[in-house]
Amino acid sequence: MFVIRLDREQQIYQQITNLRARMVEEGMANGLDHPLTIQLSQELDLLLEQYRNLKENQGK
Questions:
Q1: From the centroid of its chain, how far is CA 35?
Q2: What is the pLDDT of residues 27-39, one digit of tens each?
Q3: For the whole model, what pTM was predicted?
Q4: DSSP characters over 12-60
Q5: Which residues lie closer than 8 Å to 19 by C-beta, 6 or more apart?
Q6: d(CA 48, CA 44)
Q7: What is the C-alpha radius of gyration for the chain, rounded to an integer number of angstroms?
Q8: Is residue 14 over pLDDT 80?
Q9: Phi and psi based region of residue 34 (left: phi greater than 0; alpha: psi -120 to 50; beta: remaining)
């Protein structure tokens, strides 16, 4: 179970890294108030929440 959790943690971390880079690129190209930039930001928020929950539950 620990290995599966670690794999999931690594997957989410990689998704966060990729999405953050994409969001920054979109924000620089189209502006921070562009609908796509906002959508990416919201998706990033969800991934960060998942990652935080996974890390909090690791010791349980």
A1: 18
A2: 999 999 999 999 9
A3: 0.83
A4: HHHHHHHHHHHHHHHHHHH-TTSHHHHHHHHHHHHHHHHHHHHHHTTT-
A5: 40, 43, 44, 47
A6: 6
A7: 14
A8: yes
A9: beta
